[in-house]
C-alpha cells in the first residue's frame, strides 16, 4: 500500500541521512522553549482529547492514559 | 491467532533489545529532569447549534464543556521526577441520537431530547527515572464518569545516543474500561459492558542540524469488547436499532513532527503530520502547522492551522435502506467521510517564574472538506469554539 | 524485500511486522564508544576572551598559581539556573582562599547571557565566547561542563553536566586541591 511505503521511506531516509553534527555548545536554538515537541503539554493533552472525542482518528505520538465515554 | 503471535514476538524482541541497550551506557548521565512546576488551565468548549433544517427534534444547541486541568511536576533527588495530572470536566447539552431520511432523502439529525449533564474526573500519576542513557517512566491513571470508568497503565523508555543527537522512544499502555450507560433499561441500552485496549508506540527523534529537529513515530492500538455507542441508534430498513459496531478494532497511526528554528526572526515553525488507518476502513490524514513567535518582553504568539480529512468506516451510513450483511451499522458522524479545518491562536507572557497563557480555537467541519470530496451528506458534523486561560509557575 | 499491504479486514499485517522488524534492526546498531572530554592530567588550553560584563578580558595564564574552576555555561542550559548560584555561593565561602572561578558563556548572542545574569548575578569573572573557540579546545561533550585546574595549569578533574547532588563532590575536590598546596 502506498502509504506504508511512505512510512518506511521516511524511516530509512531519517536514519541514513547524513545529518550535520551539532556540537553540545551549538544546541542553543534547539533548546529554545518554542522548539519543544510540545510547547504546552496541557494544551497538547486537551487537543488530543478533544480530537479523539470528536473525530474518527487518534494516536500517533505516544501512548498514555485511558479513554472516556465521550459523547 | 497468527497475527497476534507475530506482533507479540516482535514486540518482545524489541523490548529485549531496548533493555539490552539500557545496560550499555556512557559514564555520563547528562539527562535532565523536567523543571518543577505547577500548571493550571481553564477551558470552555461550545459546539455550534446545527442548522435548523438538519434537525428534526431535540435541542439543536449542542454540547458545552468546561474543563479544569491541573498538573504538578516535582523532582525527587537528582534522578526521579513525579508528575501528577488532574482533570475535572463538566458537560451539558444534547448529543446526536440517530439520523432519519428526511423529505428528499437528506439525512436529518435527531438529537437527544433531555439535556445531558455529566462530569468527568481524571487522575494520573507518573514516575520518571533518569537512566545512564535516557529515562524510564511509569504512569497510572483513572478516569471516572457516571457511565464510564477507565483504568490505565503505561510504561515508557527513552534511549539517547552518545552525543544526544538521536533519541529512541518505546512505550506500551493498557486501558481497562467499564461502561454502564445511564437509563439502560428505559432506552433498551446495554446495561453493563467492558472494553480493553492495548497500545504500543515506537518513535525516533533526530537532530537534523542546529535549527531542525524531526520526530517520527508509529502507534498500534487494539481494542476489544463493547465498541458501539450505547446512546446512539441507527435507522435500518424502517426500524430504529442500537448502534452496532464490531467487537474489535485495530488502529495504526504514523506521525512525523518537524521543528525548525528561524534565528533571524526568533520563531519556530512546527509541522505535524499524522496518517491513520484502522480495520474499520477509517483512513485519515491530519496536518497541523503552527508558528511560534518569540516577541520582546517575554511575550510569545503562536497562530496555528489544522486540517483533518477522514474516510468513513465500512459500516457507516447516515441511514440504511437495507440491512447490512455483516450486521454492523452506525450513523455516528465521527465515523463519516468529512474534513475539518481549525484555527488556533495562543498568547503567552512570561514574567520571571510565571507564564500566563490565553488561547482560542475555531473548528469547522464539512463533508466537502474531505480530500475525496463529498461522498454523501452526513448530518451532525460538529463545529466548535474553545477558549482557554491559565498559568504555569516554576518553583 | 516484499512490501506487503495492510489488509483492511485486519488479517494480515505484513507492513506492521516489517516496520517493527526495521525498528528492531536499528535498535541493535551498536552504541558508539565512550566519550573523551578533556581528560584529567592534560594541560589546560589557554585562551584570551573578552569579559561578558563591562570592558576587560581574561586569560587563563593570568591565573597560574591559583586553583581555578573553569565553567562553560549558556543562557539556554537548564541546569545552569542551579549551577551558577551554587558556584557563586561556593566562591563567596572560599573568597579568602587561593581560588578563582572563571565562567565562559557560549551564547551565540552575548545579550542572552547578560539577560541571564540580570536574574542570577555572580561575583566571579564571566567571559564571552560567542565564536565558540574554547569549547573544542576542551573537547566539551555536554553543556554545562566544568574543569578543575590546579595551580600548575593541569586539569585535575572534569565535571560533565550538572546535578545539584554533585555540588558536594565539586566542593570537596576544590578543597582537596587547596589543601594540597
**Average pLDDT of chain A, to the nearest integer?**
79
Which overall shape of chain B is indicated by the principal axes computed on the Cα atoms?
globular
Main beta sheet of chain A: strand number and arrangement?
none
- What is the CA-based Rg of chain A, rounded? 17 Å
Structural class assignment of chain B: mainly beta
**Tally of separate helices of chain A:** 2
Order of helices and strands of chain B: HEEEEEEEEEEEEEEEEEEEEE
Strand order of the largest sheet of chain B: 1-3-4-7-8-9-10-11-12-15-16-17-18-19-20-21
CATH class of the domain at 133-394 in chain B: Mainly Beta
Number of strands of chain A: 0
Cα distance spanning the termini of chain A: 33 Å
Unreliable spans of chain A = none
Helix coverage percent of residues of chain A? Answer: 40-55%
- The N- and C-terminal alpha carbons of chain B lie at a distance of 52 Å
Query: What is the correct CATH architecture of the domain at 133-394 in chain B?
Result: Beta Barrel
Number of helical segments with 4 or more residues of chain B:
1
Amino acid at each position: 500500500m502506498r502509504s506504508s511505503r511512505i512510512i518506511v521511506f521516511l524511516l530509512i531516509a531519517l536514519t541514513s541521512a547524513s545529518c550535520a553534527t551539532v556540537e553540545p555548545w551549538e544546541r542553543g536554538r534547539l533548546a529554545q522553549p518554542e522548539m519543544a515537541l510540545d510547547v504546552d503539554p496541557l494544551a497538547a493533552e486537551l487537543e488530543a482529547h478533544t480530537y479523539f472525542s470528536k473525530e474518527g482518528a487518534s494516536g500517533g505520538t505516544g501512548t498514555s492514559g485511558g479513554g472516556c465515554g465521550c459523547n | 491467532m497468527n497475527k497476534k503471535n507475530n506482533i507479540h514476538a516482535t514486540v518482545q524482541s524489541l523490548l529485549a533489545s531496548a533493555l539490552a541497550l539500557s545496560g550499555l551506557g556512557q559514564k555520563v548521565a547528562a539527562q535532565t529532569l523536567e523543571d518543577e512546576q505547577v500548571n493550571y488551565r481553564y477551558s470552555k468548549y461550545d459546539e455550534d447549534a446545527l442548522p435548523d433544517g438538519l434537525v428534526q427534534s431535540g435541542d439543536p444547541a449542542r454540547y458545552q464543556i468546561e474543563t479544569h486541568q491541573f498538573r504538578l511536576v516535582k523532582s525527587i533527588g537528582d534522578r526521579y521526577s513525579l508528575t501528577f495530572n488532574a482533570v475535572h470536566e463538566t458537560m451539558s447539552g444534547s448529543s446526536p441520537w440517530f439520523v432519519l431520511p428526511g423529505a428528499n432523502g437528506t439525512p436529518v439529525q435527531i438529537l437527544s431530547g433531555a439535556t445531558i449533564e455529566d462530569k468527568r474526573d481524571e487522575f494520573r500519576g507518573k514516575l520518571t527515572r533518569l537512566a545512564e542513557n535516557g529515562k524510564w517512566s511509569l504512569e497510572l491513571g483513572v478516569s471516572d464518569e457516571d457511565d464510564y470508568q477507565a483504568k490505565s497503565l503505561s510504561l515508557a523508555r527513552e534511549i539517547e545516543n552518545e552525543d544526544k543527537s538521536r533519541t529512541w522512544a518505546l512505550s506500551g499502555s493498557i486501558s481497562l474500561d467499564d461502561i454502564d450507560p445511564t437509563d439502560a433499561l428505559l432506552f433498551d441500552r446495554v446495561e453493563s459492558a467492558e472494553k480493553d485496549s492495548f497500545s504500543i508506540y515506537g518513535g525516533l527523534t533526530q537532530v537534523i542540524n542546529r535549527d531542525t529537529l524531526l520526530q517520527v513515530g508509529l502507534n498500534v492500538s487494539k481494542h476489544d469488547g463493547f465498541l458501539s455507542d450505547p446512546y446512539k441508534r441507527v435507522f435500518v430498513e424502517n426500524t430504529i436499532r442500537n448502534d452496532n459496531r464490531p467487537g474489535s478494532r485495530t488502529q495504526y497511526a504514523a506521525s512525523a513532527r518537524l521543528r525548525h528554528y528561524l534565528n533571524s526572526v526568533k520563531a519556530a515553525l512546527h509541522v505535524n503530520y499524522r496518517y491513520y488507518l484502522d480495520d474499520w476502513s477509517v483512513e485519515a490524514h491530519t496536518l497541523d502547522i503552527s508558528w511560534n513567535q518569540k516577541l520582546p518582553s517575554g511575550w510569545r504568539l503562536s497562530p496555528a492551522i489544522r486540517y483533518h480529512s477522514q474516510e468513513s468506516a465500512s459500516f457507516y451510513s447516515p441511514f440504511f435502506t437495507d440491512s447490512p450483511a455483516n450486521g454492523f451499522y452506525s450513523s455516528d458522524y465521527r465515523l463519516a467521510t468529512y474534513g475539518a479545518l481549525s484555527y488556533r491562536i495562543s498568547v503567552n507572557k512570561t514574567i520571571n517564574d510565571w507564564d500566563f497563557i490565553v488561547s482560542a480555537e475555531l473548528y469547522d467541519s464539512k463533508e466537502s472538506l474531505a480530500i475525496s470530496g463529498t461522498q454523501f451528506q452526513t448530518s451532525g458534523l460538529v463545529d466548535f469554539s474553545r477558549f482557554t486561560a491559565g498559568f504555569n509557575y516554576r518553583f | 524485500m516484499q512490501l506487503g499491504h495492510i489488509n483492511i479486514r485486519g488479517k494480515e499485517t505484513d507492513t506492521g511486522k516489517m516496520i517493527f522488524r526495521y525498528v528492531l534492526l536499528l535498535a541493535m546498531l551498536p552504541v558508539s564508544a565512550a566519550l573523551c572530554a578533556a581528560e584529567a592530567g592534560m594541560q589546560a588550553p589557554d585562551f584570551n576572551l573578552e569579559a561578558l560584563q563591562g570592558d576587560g578580558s581574561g586569560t587563563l595564564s593570568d591565573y597560574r598559581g591559583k586553583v581555578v574552576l573553569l565553567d562553560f555555561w549558556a543562557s539556554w542550559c537548564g541546569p545552569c539556573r542551579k549551577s551558577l548560584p551554587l558556584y557563586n555561593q561556593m566562591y563567596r565561602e572560599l573568597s579568602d582562599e587561593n581560588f578563582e572561578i572563571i565562567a565562559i558563556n557560549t551564547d551565540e548572542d552575548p545579550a542572552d547571557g547578560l539577560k541571564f545574569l540580570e536574574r542570577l548575578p555572580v561575583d566571579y569573572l564571566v567571559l564571552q565566547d560567542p565564536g565558540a573557540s574554547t569549547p573544542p579546545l576542551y573537547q566539551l561533550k555536554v553543556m554545562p561542563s566544568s574543569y578543575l585546574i590546579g595551580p600548575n595549569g593541569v586539569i585535575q578533574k572534569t565535571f560533565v553536566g550538572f546535578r545539584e547532588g554533585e555540588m558536594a563532590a565539586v566542593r570537596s575536590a576544590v578543597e582537596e586541591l587547596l589543601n594540597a598546596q
